[in-house]
Amino acid sequence: MARANRGFTLLELLVVLSIVALATVGVSFAIRDSGATELQREGERLAVLLETARAQSRASGTAVRWRATEQGFVFEGLPHLKLPERWLLNGTRTNGPAQLWLGPEPIISAQQVWLVNESYPDRTIRIGTDGVRAFTAEAMQ
Quick check: helix, strand or coil at residue 125? Predict the structure, then answer.
């Protein structure tokens, strides 16, 4: 006796839906908001540069100041260490105080600076320290 073809079983439908859900999750992770990612990367880069200058300031006993400029930024007080002075992402600038003191004391005052970009006006990255811990970059919404 031959069975009539009646369609898909519930198990087959669940397997297909699971595969589609996994594929959707994979695609959503692959297609990230490049603006958020690029500006976050810029903030993390600045945090690393600030920590590098802070360590050099403590090692040399020289006062170091970071300040934003029209073209990017500059580290003042580090004659022997050449650090980058330009943003990687065009249109990046600071919002708020545009200078930070990085030493030579091991404990500095709590400081922060905000990065914004004209291409992503709804994004802000805060780079800051409480004076004891390292500079960190975090997205502000």
Answer: strand
Residue-level pLDDT at 99: 92
User: SS3 of 127, please?
Assistant: strand
Distance CA 127, CA 124 (A): 10
pTM of the model: 0.75
| pLDDT reported for residue 1 | 57
Homologous superfamily, domain 34-140: minor pseudopilin epsh domain (3.55.40.10)
Cα–Cα distance measured from residue 52 to residue 103, given in angstroms and rounded to the nearest whole number: 11
**Tens-digit pLDDT profile for residues 72-111:** 999 999 877 889 999 999 999 998 778 999 989 989 999 9
Strands, E assignment, the chain? 65-68, 73-76, 92-95, 99-101, 111-117, 120-129, 136-140
Q: How far is Cα 130 from Cα 1, in angstroms, rounded to an integer?
A: 79
